[in-house]
Structure formats: structure tokens, C-alpha cells
Specification:
Mean pLDDT: 97
Low-confidence stretches: none
Bound molecules: nicotinamide-adenine-dinucleotide
CATH superfamily: NAD(P)-binding Rossmann-like Domain
Strand content: 15-25%
CATH topology: Rossmann fold
Order of helices and strands: EHEHEHEEHEHEEHHEHH
Structural class: alpha/beta
Number of domains: 1
């Protein structure tokens, strides 16, 4: 059952200090929801907390590493104790990586899988039981990516992590088909956020010029994260299953279904020009 009116609902957003998470926390706050904004460091959440409170709604800022199982358990308990079961949980926190497979170490695989996959798993594992026990309409949104529908060279670990999120979320959705929790998979396309800057893992062989080109591409072709945020609000109000949002997301999804050969050729061509291959 969709949640049409978000006023006074409890909405948890991970990775809320930046980009899509920040825009999403603000979009739900504008709907009158109480926000639980989580990110690695509490200080990084100060600006978004202030903006949310300026909208006249409460914000609980919480520092947690989504990859840390024990810390995520404590986080979910803290939210439960303060507010009861959340109405909406958005597992958004994630990190990127750029580098060819054989030119990268394996540590980045571990890091990406810990954050992008286990972070989402932890968010589901520790919040879902209380959401089910509380009853009533509840929504869970797992943020995957267009890369989870089709990969790019040099982003293999990222695509693998997002593919895992997408396919696992679909399985979880079936497990919970008779429950009160609606589950959505969110697949953003190219979004202009800091994901391609500070925390981006990069193989030593990637030249600065490629990185610079990538950042320019995201700035020029990427849409603002508010577009994804607005689509997530819509997804909760309409119980959407798969949210294809932002530039190229729907295109990648549809072309992949039509012709693997075509999308592979287009991606190889693009990647050569971008320096990813
Ligand atoms: N920007 C894009 O083009 C794009 C496209 C598709 C999917 N996505 C996905 O959207 C999500 C948000 O990305 P974004 O573009 O807003 O990036 P971003 O870098 O702007 O924001 C990510 C936030 O997650 C936080 N974070 C990172 N690791 C964390 C951890 N271990 N625990 C808690 N918080 C952590 C960061 O501190 C940051 O505030 C990610 O899952 C990303 O993979 C982004």
C-alpha cells in the first residue's frame, strides 16, 4: 500500500550528507516527513540537518558506516527507540571506482562490496523486522544504478555491486510479497554529484586527464540529484517497483533488453572516447 501523505512519517536516508542522499532527505522533509539522516561523519551532516530543520521538520543526524554490521544494528535500534519503526528506509550510501580490472588491486573489490552491497544488506536486515512488526504501509528503497543493468569498462566492481543490489532486491521483494513493506529498486543514470570527486577510488594507471574528462562529463551530462529525489518521493507515493531516473537510465534499460550486441558496441565506443578502455 502506497504512502500518499508523508507528513510526520519517519524517513531514514543513508549517505544523506551529499548528492542524491542529501537531495532526497530534503525532498522528503519538504513533504513534512521527519528525517533520520545518516552518513559517515556527523559534522558532514550539519548543513543538511540545518536545512531540514529550517523547513520546520525534525532531523536526527547519525554517524554510521553502513558497511559495519554492529554499528548498523545499533543505528537501527537507536532509530526504533526514538521514533518507532520507520515508514521509509532509503539505502543510498555508496561509493564509486574507476580502473581496469587487471590494473587494479583487489582491495577495491572488497571495499566496494562492503559498502555498496553489505551496506544495503545491513539497512534491510536491521530495519525490516521492526517495519514488518509495526504493520501499516512501509517502503524500502535500495539505490542501485544504471550500471546494475549494464556495466562500463573500468567500473566492473561498481557494476557488480549494483547488479547484486538490483537482483537481490528483486528476490527480497518476492520474499516480502505478502508483507506490508513495498520494495523499490532505484536505478539512477548520470547524476551530477561529488561521487566522481573526493571519495572515488581510482586505479594508479588512470591518468588525471581521464578523471578530469569524467568529471566534466558528469557536470555537463548529469542531471541534478533533485531529479532522483523527486522520483523517490513519487515511488513511495505510487509504490513503484523499478525507478529508472535521470539521463540514460531508461535508455540503457530498454536497449539492454532489445540488443546486447548493440549496447555493448555503444558502450565500447563511448568508453574508448572517455579513456575508460
Ligand atoms: N551520481 C551518479 O551518477 C549515480 C548514478 C547511479 C547510482 N548512484 C548511486 O547513488 C548513491 C548516492 O551517490 P551520490 O552520487 O549521491 O554520491 P555522493 O558521493 O555525492 O554521496 C554518497 C554519500 O554516501 C556517504 N557514504 C559513503 N560511504 C559510506 C559508508 N560506508 N557509510 C555511510 N555513508 C557513506 C558519503 O559520505 C556521501 O555523503 C550511491 O549508492 C551511488 O552508487 C549515483
Amino acid at each position: 500500500m502506497a504512502i500518499k501523505d508523508l507528513r510526520d512519517k519517519i524517513v531514514v536516508v543513508t549517505g544523506a550528507a551529499s548528492g542524491i542522499g542529501r537531495a532526497t532527505a530534503l525532498a522528503f522533509a519538504r513533504e513534512g516527513a521527519t528525517i533520520v539522516a545518516a552518513d559517515l561523519h556527523e559534522g558532514a551532516l550539519d548543513p543538511v540537518s540545518k536545512e531540514i530543520e529550517a523547513l520546520g521538520v525534525a532531523c536526527m543526524a547519525y554517524a554510521v558506516d553502513v558497511a559495519d554490521e554492529a554499528a548498523m544494528k545499533v543505528f537501527a535500534e537507536a532509530v526504533g527507540e526514538r521514533f518507532g519503526a520507520p515508514h521509509v528506509v532509503i539505502n543510498n550510501a555508496g561509493i564509486g571506482y574507476l580502473g581496469l580490472f587487471l590494473e587494479s588491486d583487489l582491495e577495491h573489490w572488497q571495499r566496494i562490496l562492503r559498502v555498496n552491497v553489505m551496506g544495503v544488506v545491513h539497512g534491510c536486515y536491521f530495519f525490516l523486522p521492526m517495519m514488518i512488526a509495526a504493520g501499516g504501509p512501509r517502503n524500502l528503497l535500495n539505490v542501485s544504478s544504471s550500471a546494475g543493468n549494464f556495466p562500463s569498462p573500468s567500473m566492473g566492481a561498481y557494476a557488480a555491486s549494483k547488479g547484486a543490489v538490483s537482483i537481490w532486491t528483486e528476490g527480497l521483494k518476492m520474499e516480502l510479497t505478502d508483507s506490508n513493506v513495498h520494495i523499490s529498486t532505484v536505478c539512477p543514470g548520470v547524476i551530477n554529484t561529488p561521487i566522481v570527486r573526493g571519495a572515488l577510488g581510482v586505479a594508479p594507471s588512470v591518468p588525471d586527464s581521464t578523471l578530469e574528462k569524467m568529471r566534466e562529463y558528469y557536470q555537463k551530462e548529469g542531471c541534478e540529484p533533485g531529479v532522483v529525489a523527486a522520483d523517490m518521493v513519487k515511488a513511495v507515493k505510487k509504490d513503484r517497483d523499478i525507478v529508472l531516473t535521470g539521463p540514460k537510465a531508461a535508455l540503457v534499460y530498454q536497449v539492454r533488453r532489445l540488443s546486447l550486441k548493440l549496447i555493448r558496441a555503444v558502450t565500447i565506443d563511448f568508453s574508448r572516447k572517455a579513456g575508460y578502455l
